[in-house]
Amino acid sequence: GNYVAFGGGTATSAFAVRRFANGQIGGTASPVTIPGSGPTVSNNAISWKSTGDYVVIGVTTGNANSNKVQAYSFNSTTLALATDSGFGAGSVSGTDCLAVAWRSGESEIVAGFNGALGGVTQNVRVFRHSPGALTELTSSYVAQTKTVNSVRWNTLGDLLFVGTASGTDDEGNVYAYLEEDAALAKVSGVGFASDVQSAVWDEVDGHFLILGWLDTHARMYKFTTQNMTFENVHLILDTDVQLQAPVRIRGLVELHGNGN
Fold this sequence. Notes:
Helices cover 0% and strands 49% of the residues. The protein is mostly beta strands. A hairpin with a 4-residue loop joins β14 (172-178) and β15 (183-190). It is built from no helices and 22 strands.
């Protein structure tokens, strides 16, 4: 793109967009002061919509009245607050949005937090953006209570990586996004008893993932989808099932959906 978004910590220009042309970063396009008392943009918390007309940020609290996820419209010259998550007054002071990522070509935004909001500890939250509104998709909760440092969609938007602080379970988690149900389902995880600070998918086929760990290492992983094989089985379903892998049928396989 032709523009770069910056988040800073100064009171009068905490968030701004600058033009990039001829190898140079140019002047500021209408810097804005984030609403609230002293909030700043978090380290992993700026993400453009693929169309370039909106950008979302995640902010530190400043105080309990600072909204945590904010979407701004951008028309090549002016930034304007378009909508926010509504998580402000009444939420726990000290809770920050540490990471945001806009799903490529779509309206969903994922945000990572470090504590309870609205009395609920769900540190991975997905929002659906429409002009003038950010609607939380509570169906996407994954019961993540550890601090979430990084979130990143793959290029197709069907897989989401979530990196967390160290703990008893995986610090690196890959979820499939089930669009029909607006839900996340964990498909893989990796742990090294260290915080995952940042992550990036390759932009060619989405098979490779580089993670930055707090132990000073950057590690590359290959993510592959394995075939699911049903052979000589009788399947009776009592709930809806979505298969996120190529399916092979061998022998005699009977499937009873029972209306699901």
